[in-house]
Amino acid sequence: MDFKTLILQFLNNNDSTINVLNQEQITVMELLFKGGFMMIPILVLFVITIYILIEKILIINRESKSPKGFTDEIISRVKNDDINGAKLVCTDTNNPVSRMILKGLNKLNTSLKNIESSVENVGKIEIYNLEKNLSLLATISGAAPMIGFLGTVTGMIQAFISIAEEEGAVSPKLLSSGIYEAMLTTAAGLFVGIIAYLSYNYLVSRVEKLIHKMEYTTIEFIETLQNKKWI
Questions:
Q1: Within the chain, what is the greatest distance between any pair of CA atoms?
Q2: What's the rounded Cα separation, in Å, for the pair 116 and 103?
Q3: Is 105 buried (19+), middle (13-18) or exposed (0-12) by CB count in 10 A?
Q4: 9 and 78 share a domain?
Q5: 96-106 and 70-79 helices cross at what angle (nearest 10)?
Q6: pTM for this one?
Q7: Structural domain harbouring 220
Q8: What is the spatial distance between Cα 39 and Cα 32, in angstroms, rounded to a whole number?
Q9: Residues 17 and 46 in one domain
Q10: How many domains does the chain have?
Q11: What would the pLDDT profile of 1-24 be if each residue is shown by its tens digit?
């Protein structure tokens, strides 16, 4: 047998192997369908997780935007009794910090205690809006893996029922296919749970950073009013 013949045989064998692999390849969608009906709630939780993540990132990015020197300008205008100018700056900025300060500026004809209460109440509303739906992400991070485990248990039960109904020797292929299909829900549930958990912690850190900025600015604003002896 010459060298050319060996090369041809090698190429033919590789072609046949590639054809077999292509026939046995399973797409992601086919894997999802093989996971059974428990994949449906897991997919729903995944869509909700991605939606909340994108929505909260857009909201936090929008609410975090503030002109450079915003706080210094507000404090400077208040010290110079330019209250209307300070209100105009807050209106143009329109973020949680500016809305809190604007509420305080609108209450300057009242006592300092009322001003602090008004600013604090607005701050609570702003914090609620920032933290909205974050608890849902925390719930999904725990619920998705549990649903996945439930799907695996029900899938294993179905697999063993199929094995029990088989007459004679049980095919290893039947056993292995039933087990891997049942394990798909566990893998999918863990994947969604990890994504939700990471998203939750990332968003919480972003929100806490923004809340700290709100607290720092409002404290400086109230101290300025105290120094002006507003009563």
A1: 106
A2: 10
A3: buried
A4: no
A5: 10
A6: 0.76
A7: 35-227
A8: 7
A9: no
A10: 2
A11: 554 454 444 445 544 444 433 444
